[in-house]
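Anyone opening a protein record will find just a pair of labelled lines. A complete record is shown below as an example:
=====
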Amino acid sequence: MPDEQHPAESQDPADARPADARPAAAPLATAPLPHEVADWRLRVFSLYERVRAAPTPREGHELWRRGRDDLFAEHPASPLPPRDRERFRGLPVAPYDPAYRFDVPLTDEGAGQDRRVATGTDGVVVFVRLGTFELPRLGRLAAWEHAGYGGGIFVPFRDGTAGRPGPGGSYGAGRYLLDSIKGAFLGTRPDAAGVRYVLDFNFAYNPSCAYDEAWACPLPGPENRLSADVAAGELAPPGV
């Protein structure tokens, strides 16, 4: 998804991330036009709105899977190169597993930590750590907010399946769990202690560079790496 910087475009400050840098490959001959990227983002927001309104998480997951397949196959801002869209038959997504759905608070561990990210076009962009999610059986993940434009909450991760060959392996550079600036958000609910976030790894998705290295991808830093396997969500594309 065009959540990342295409090398043929100037970078929106909201696309800089508190993560390791990955150098961009040579630009594609044709980059998505600004109105095409805007339409993609509107469609992603609409898709997640329907997911949150679904009667059950499993039904929401099916909506999400079908909606992303449609976007990847047909939308002009798809991260799939045109040559790959002709043979595209759907994204590799694991069957829904409720064991990977969590309803957890954001603790204050690490809150206020700065992460300064060098970008290709906007100099150094500052992110501030909002806190930490503690996930039973899996470990801890840092949550980040852009200190300038956009704000929001961003949670990338890399787990034990990353780079594993064969069925069940995930993209080696990591995946995204939440990115509210771009619509990828499953909601919250109030409780006596504050707010609990829905973190569902069944909705984890690959960055755009998993499908085309011409995209410059933000990668999970050390605070967003899990040693446990997360056998859920979008898997490694064929041939990756």
Summary: The beta strands are 19-20, 101-107, 114-118, 124-135, 139-146, 154-157, 175-179, 188-191, 194-200, 219-220. The chain has a mean pLDDT of 86. The longest helix spans residues 34-53.
